[in-house]
Amino acid sequence: MAQYEDLRRALEQQREQLQAELAEINSQTNSGMGYRNHQADDGTIAFEQAANLAVRQNAERLLYQIERALTRMEEGTYGICRECGGEIDPARLRAIPYTRYCMDCARRHEET
Ligand SMILES: [Zn+2]
Hints:
The chain is mostly helical. It contains 5 helices and no strands. It folds into 2 domains: about 1-80; about 80-110, no CATH class. The radius of gyration is 18 Å and the shape is elongated. The chain binds zinc ion (ZN).
């Protein structure tokens, strides 16, 4: 799959960034809670935890999609729409390297 070498590098880079981001979020969640409890009221803490959770869930979902895309590259099924089996437009792959659907199918599902 030599034609996807650039995309593979981009995906691997993005994966590293996300892993670093998740490690950062996890360390924030685990540390500092003890002393912050004395300063912030419960509402603020709940808000921070919810915000952290949302960021983490987004990052985890994206990371999962990136890992799936890299697996498809290994298997040779990368760039093929999982819905209709058609080829995904290379321009679309460059914009969203981890997409599983061609433009038409993505529009129907309203997801990438
Ligand atoms: Zn399709």
